[in-house]
Amino acid sequence: MTPFIAEILGTALLILLGGGVVASSVLKDTKSTGSGWMVITTGWAMGVFIGVFVSAPYSGAHINPAVTLALAIEGSFSWADVPIYMLAQLIGAMIGSGTVYMLFKDHFDNTDNPAGKRAIFCTDPAIPNTIRNLMSEIVGTFVLIIAVFYITGAELQGEEGVPVGLGAVGAIPIAFVVWSIGLSLGGLTGYAINPARDLGPRIMHFILPIQGKTDSNWSYSWIPIVGPFIGAALATGLHLMLN
Q1: Domains, the chain, with CATH or none
Q2: What is the C-alpha separation between 27 and 53, in angstroms, rounded?
Q3: Engineering a disulfide at 71: which of 6, 77, 127, 181 sits with its beta carbon 3.0 to 4.6 angstroms away?
Q4: pLDDT digits over 68-87, tens only?
Q5: 75: alpha, beta or left, given left = phi > 0 and alpha = psi -120 to 50?
Q6: Which residue, 150, 148, 126, 135, is CA-closest to 66?
């Protein structure tokens, strides 16, 4: 499997399981309707675990443009490969969210909650405040990236035959980090902490024929893109200073 395909597959699995747990909780008449935030954050964390574990041997399991940017700034990942990885992540996110819609279409049709339907695809702030919403994504991603460096340090040395990235060894601890971020900080904006995770599904929300959908809130969409990139750069800068 090539790194490009691995990043598509890993990101698609992440979004399929993450978007799926939101759909199961938000949409009407599923077996777990109304299951709540604990279930949603747990589902996203397990999605990270599976996406990382599957793609790690082939691509390093970035499955997040913020991770890719951080590793490039840090110097352990080639800048020439950054666009390839980010494109794969975006494609994977679109495939994953599109699959969620296909599987849950009957429940989408039975649900009269336009904002809830959009939440399955992309993030929105609980209280709109541009500065604090942006800070939420910066800080959440900062926590993720600083954890990536200190949890998966061995995988960043570029051993022969091992792609630089999270590595399979990081699957479980990084899943716990994402779970913790979701529980502690996610209630503010829905914790994208991953530009592809938000942009890819937002594009799918825009183009899919979802019954009774609202707009895709493009005026907010830059925050879950810019915020994670800033958070990743700051975390990488701190890591370089301390090491």
Answers
A1: 3-242 (1.20.1080.10)
A2: 29
A3: 77
A4: 999 999 988 999 999 999 99
A5: left
A6: 148
DSSP letters for 113-137: -HHHHHHHHS---SS--HHHHHHHH
Query: How far is 35 from 42, CA to CA, in rounded Å?
Result: 11
**Could you tell me where the DSSP H helices lie in the chain?**
3-26, 37-59, 65-74, 82-110, 114-121, 130-151, 171-185, 195-207, 223-242
Q: Which of 63, 54, 191 is nearest to 136 (CA)?
A: 191
Q: What is the DSSP letter of 164?
A: S
> Tokens at residue 20, please?
């799926």
> pLDDT category, 154, cuts 50, 70, 90?
very low
Long-range contacts of 105-112 (CB under 8 A, 24+ apart): 107/23, 107/27, 107/28, 107/29, 107/30, 108/23, 108/27, 108/210, 108/211, 109/211, 110/27, 110/28, 110/29, 111/26, 111/27, 111/28, 111/212, 112/28, 112/212
DSSP H helical ranges for 152-222: 171-185, 195-207
Residue 47 corresponds to which tokens in the numbers above? 């999605």
Signed CA dihedral, 144, 150, 154, 156: sign only = positive
Dist CA 240 CA 51 (whole Å): 27
pLDDT for residue 166 is more than 70: no
The per-residue pLDDT for range 12-49, each reduced to its tens digit, is: 999 999 999 999 999 999 999 999 999 999 999 999 99
* Cβ–Cβ under 8 Å, residues 67 and 148: yes
pTM (2 d.p.) = 0.92
Length of the chain: 243
Neighbouring CB atoms inside 10 A of 128's CB total: 13
